[in-house]
Request: fold
Amino acid sequence: MMFAGKAAARVEADRILAAFTGAGAEVVETAILQPADVLLDLYGEDIRARAYVTSDPLRGEMMLRPDFTVPLVQMHMAAGAGLGRYAYAGEVFRRQEISADRPNEFIQVGFELFGDADEAAADAEVYATITAALGDLRLQAAMGDIGILLSAVRALETSDARKAALLRHVWRPRRFRLLLDRFGGRQAMPDHMQALLAQADPLAGAPAAFGLRGADEVTDRLDALREDALTPPIPAHQMALFDEILAVAAPVPQALAELRAIAARFDGIAAAVDRLALRLDALTARGVDLSEVAFETTFGRTALEYYDGFVFGLYAAGRHFPPVATGGRYDALTRVLGQGRAVPAVGGVIRPEIIVGLKGA
Reply:
């Protein structure tokens, strides 16, 4: 049975939480009912669509906690944004529209580090602490690095507007691919956009407002489309290199070699690949056998959108969903919730009810 009873899951959660506090973490709590106005925008499309949202007459729009990380970052940044080492355990809530067999309420146990200047060491510590807490379960491990993709986009020879669009859609693989191919000249601008721009005055006879958008906003959007139509395509050699980056999928040592070879021809990702190498060295120093870990450049792109660097997942053999544990680096999230201040931050979570189910299988 994949999803065990809550009582057994709580016992397992307590065991994992004890392992995290043994690693020096302070146990923290966050409210189950969270303000939705700011937090929903930080989770990304998947969680936004699955959050339980309600309206409170005094507090406004609220939601049941869909994860711990975002409210924890908010708490840490409000407290001064120094060093932090935290652990937590509790329920999170997410609507399930694909299968009624998937739980809409489950327990997360997490371990999060803030403020460690040695990012490679912190990444390795979180991964090693999470895997140690899983005990002797035989799991498949996968890693990725969103930072490599972000660096590749920023290094493209194209307009800032096109880079911003690609960066906005990194976590939506299909949309990202469509935009990249259009910006690279492989696909034409959609017919409806071309038809709109072909009109002498697209707003002739139009109403003063279009839903929630005013005429000024629509005019700005049309100007952006005209500018984009005149922007030269991304050079073919950069498109080919980006294809190579997206195709990297191999055991970690081989993937690193492939990325180094690409970086030698695409300097824009060189620093990100160097950071990856430092992290892998730190993982090896902690006894992680990287030859048994799969690496994919695209791994983690359909997860929570606040990850912006190292990402990882641990799965039962032959089962890619649900993950037993996931995690990664989310420095950019601290900048958003810190109102411009930022600290290094990395963490991971474990699903104890899945562990109970695997042990009983």
